[in-house]
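If it is no trouble, might I ask you for a protein's amino acid sequence along with its backbone structure tokens?
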Amino acid sequence: MIRLCGIGGVYLFVVPLFLFYWMNNRWNVMGKFERLFIYGLVFLFFPGMVLFAPFLNLRMNGKEES
């Protein structure tokens, strides 16, 4: 039972947070195969991504005016 909760916690919390972090840091420099791999992981871990989506702001910073 504890092992099942651990696997569920990794599936719903740990991996989705890592994916949000990875996408936020690498969005502009990802290659096409890395982007395809990340999209596949987002599809696989979609329930966890939906849990955190309302709380995380991943919009890009606009260009600052000079």
The mean pLDDT is 87.
